[in-house]
Amino acid sequence: MFKILKAEKLADKIYLMDVEAPRVARACEPGEFVIVKMDEIGERIPLTICDYDRETGTITIVFQIVGASTQRMAELQAGDAFQDVVGPLGNPSEFVSEDIEVLKNKKMLFVAGGVGTAPVYPQVKWLHEHGIDADVIVGAKNHDLLILEEQMRAVAGNLYITTDDGSYVRKGMVTEVIKDLVQEQGKQYDVCVAIGPMIMMKFVCLLTKELNLPTIVSMNPIMVDGTGMCGACRLTVGDEVKFACVDGPEFDGHLVNFDEAMKRQQMYKTQEGRAMLKLQE
Ligand code: FES
């Protein structure tokens, strides 16, 4: 069993948990994820690792209620436990294996959307701990849904916040901030990392393609086994079929077929609706 040490509500439908998982905490790197299962009948839920502490043997997960399973998960409290936490799964972010001196000369821009701020945080933190301060754009629907602001501010070179409704800092989409930084302020970046809702990543990639800015995205399709066997997380990247769980989750954003990925994500909507109704019975 994997004990929950802390359970906190960060925003409407967004929760953070510190979970005792010493082997995962010892081995994980930014970019990787875990699959958690609450109990015998629980669904397998893939979650990015938001933070880890190798000494205390804990990992931090952040999740949003998107269906019946995450709804049940949100009810767990400190002292409860997950039956399974499997990981680390997937591949670490590319920069983790790059030469630090080469990396120090790279200008990196991170773009986080909504709950995508959680997987961006450990990447920016890792770079900061290695003497590299990246620029970070965080977009949220409104001020209340903005998460991890203080944590991100502590590790980012520059933090640019934007909200869809203008309730905090500035109004507008993350793409408008990218345009401002690159076209108005003349900032030059070597690579952009965008993580958030698929629709956001799609539009960031359309823009960065125009700007000739190489872009990495982290894909979060439906997953079942997380080991490349079931095919649920299939994506088309360029003219190749890839599995997000074993080939990713990070891919060249300019090659990902987002329209197909979003269509596949819709496939389970009806079953999910039925499961939610059952939960309310
Ligand atoms: Fe089954 Fe990726 S989750 S192949």
How does this structure look, described?
There is one protein chain. The chain is α/β, with parallel strands linked by helices. It folds into two domains: 2-89, Translation factors (Elongation Factor Tu (Ef-tu), domain 3); 98-218, 3-Layer(aba) Sandwich (Rossmann fold). Helix content is 31%, strand content 30%. The protein has helices spanning 22-27, 68-74, 100-104, 117-129, 149-155, 174-184, 198-210, 244-247, 258-266, 269-280, and strands at residues 2-11, 14-20, 33-37, 45-53, 58-64, 81-82, 84-89, 108-113, 135-140, 158-163, 191-195, 215-218, 234-237, 240-243, 250-252. The strands form three sheets. A seven-stranded antiparallel beta sheet has the order 6-1-2-5-4-3-7. Strand 13 (234-237) and strand 14 (240-243) form a beta hairpin. Helix 2 crosses helix 10. The longest helix has 13 residues, at 117-129. The two termini are 29 Å apart. The mean pLDDT is 93. Residues 223-226, 228-233, 243, 245 line the site of FE2/S2 (inorganic) cluster. FE2/S2 (inorganic) cluster binds next to loops.
Residue stretches low in confidence (pLDDT < 50, at least 5 long) are none
Number of helices: 10
Oligomer: single chain
Count of the domains: 2
What is the topology?
Layout: E1 2-11, E2 14-20, H1 22-27, E3 33-37, E4 45-53, E5 58-64, H2 68-74, E6 81-82, E7 84-89, H3 100-104, E8 108-113, H4 117-129, E9 135-140, H5 149-155, E10 158-163, H6 174-184, E11 191-195, H7 198-210, E12 215-218, E13 234-237, E14 240-243, H8 244-247, E15 250-252, H9 258-266, H10 269-280
Parallel strand pairs: 8-9, 8-11, 9-10, 11-12
Antiparallel strand pairs: 1-2, 1-6, 2-5, 3-4, 3-7, 4-5, 12-15, 13-14
Helix pairs in contact: 2-10, 6-7, 7-9
The protein binds FE2/S2 (inorganic) cluster.
